[in-house]
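Risk mitigation, structural track. In case the binding assays with beta-D-glucopyranose fail to produce interpretable data, a predicted complex structure has been prepared as a fallback.
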Amino acid sequence: MTGQLIPQELQARARDLARQMTLEEKAAITVGRDFWTTQPVQRLGIPSIWLADGPTGVRKSPSAHAPGIGDSLPATCFPTASALGSSWDVDLAREVGAAIGIEAQVQGVQIVLGPGVNLKRSPLAGRNFEYLSEDPVLAGEMAAALIEGVQGQGVGTSLKHFAANEQETGRMYVDSIVDERTLREIYLRAFEIAVRKALPWTLMCAYNRLNGEYCAEHRALLTDILRDEWGHEGFVVSDWMAVNDRPAGIDAGLDLQMPGGPSVPGVMAAVRDGELDEARLDAAVEDILGIVLLAEASIRPVAVLDKAAHHRLARRAAAESIVLLKNEANLLPLAIEQAGTVALIGGFAREPRFQGAGSSEVVPTRVDTLLDELGRLKGTSPIEFAEGYGPEGTADAARLLEAKNLARDAGVAIVVVGLPSSMETEGRDRTHIDLPNSHNDLVRAVLDVQPNTVIVLVNGSAVRLPWLAEAPAVVEAWLGGQAAGGAIADVLTGVVNPSGKLSETFPVRLEDTPAFLSFPTAGDGTVRFTEGVFTGHRWYDARKIAPLFPFGHGLSYTTFACDGLTVDAAEFGDDGSVEITVMVENTGARSGKEVVQVYVGECTPRVPRPRRELKAFAKVALEPEEDKTLQFSLTWRDFAFYDVVAGTWEMDGGEYEITIGASAADIRLGARVTLESTHQAPVVIDRGTPLSNALQHPVARGLLQPILDGMTQSFGGGEASEMMMMFLADTPIRKLAIMGVLTDDQVDDLVAAANARPDGL
Ligand code: BGC
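Fallback model:
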């Protein structure tokens, strides 16, 4: 342990306590006491701690023995992760995290189960609403801020679901087959950023298998990568019922099983029989105790919980997350006083959908509706309401007709459509990305009769918008938490200038999406991440597929301009950095916020790499005509790829393009830089290495060149020799033995000699 998270004296106490525990006590503490709490050891004064869902608010069950979905203690329901991710505002995420931390303290919860940084591989994934982005950098940075916020209040987090748990279909058993590079650069990257930056107290391992091994028993994942490489100090908890083989899990680095179950005798027997090294059990016990002691030391009395302030924060956060997708002829913000009658249409305006279904479902402290909140901001304009569709997306011809008539006679229509909760739930993926037919029919009917129509979308993940060309204004409001109704009213009326940017690409059609051919299963219990590193915006860019709305897209009621990109290029060692500055100016007439997005791409990579990858971003508030200069520091890791042969991150020297975008598809500025790499990844030569590659290696070249020269001569020189050399270039070293040029032993000696040299490339 590095002692960054858990102070040395607590670590020492944890070690000391672990030494005093009996085998039974040690086995018992690695298995939950019930559904939500850990096993205490009264004899030694070791308390129990309470873990409760997240991630959008505290979901504490009234009983430690029951899941408590639907009857948890009331708490502020903040915007879901898909919304908050679209705010691109790390300070806001930190604030929301802090509010969640305070509520956890009040409720006696020591660990909040979240945030979730699984990535939106497909828009079909049922839990996308619970995840922050399709992009690992955005997801990782936002998660780090949330963790800092919660933990700043003395409450732990559980970064989840570790790892490659990108779907609901078969989530308890599916085997995610992900190549090493994709895993490192995409799916693990979000976790790595959050772990390294924010030191979460715990991580939650996923249900699924990863490349053949259940995550709950995956040593490479839980120990080699998480602890040895990234330095995680806290404990790892299983997702609820993710454990398959408890002793094997402990051996792999899964410290705590939740919820409780009859695993203790098995763990004890495994130790007694020598199947589980007691030292591995001790390590798990110490990890748990370190956090239990930290939690105990972090308990703070909260005098009064200011629920109203948290509700206001939920409203602000929801408003910051709303994405203005389209706004022709500046229909928005509504000039509400001049609008005449406002036709507010759609059941969601009166009975809002504000969160997804499943374990994250918070019982809110209160719920605002768009109908009420728009009523408060409308001035003298009358608002008339029509349902437009039936519950759960059912069609209702009478309601449709009523809505159409209302819209026809109004000055402006606001139509609220989206996904019913059955389409966005934990445990089930979607089968399409369409809105219910009744919602699309309603939109079309209103657009037919009312040119001033604003469509408000309420959904947790991308949807298809077949009527987009006819709709003058579209607002993506997400599942914005309990105060979403007010936030939408704020944006529609211009009280808040929208500044959200899509944290996921909206495709024209499902067939365009990266995982279309491989989601959710290959039919043999596996899901193969066949698109590799080309996920999300990387895919659309590489395939030149125009999305409906690109990643990072979002309009404002003002305009911004970027200028003066400067890059100080550098030589790169592990501690090198490239400093970028860029100026952004508010060129419109309202104050607003812009998200500056920094993308990086290697110009002529030796492995297939995305043309542009998000590496940094910042959200900046600007008054009209104000400008600010932003500075970003990129390190060698921002230019590196994961070299699977060397098993390390590698930045090749050469030319890179650094671009500034208003979205992944709206690149405003660019600069090419030539970087000199001083980072030396080992080049591994083996018997299968082709001769052309081996010749790049100084030692192997020294040994091989004379042999090849001899062969060239023996071919008689000229064209025949050239042909043979071309043929040989592709030939693995071991074939020199088949050809009788070397013996098998000589091939082995050559490989060993090449790898032995520390100064190999
Ligand atoms: C979910 C987790 C959740 C846990 C406890 C599981 O089914 O996957 O995200 O934290 O239940 O409710």
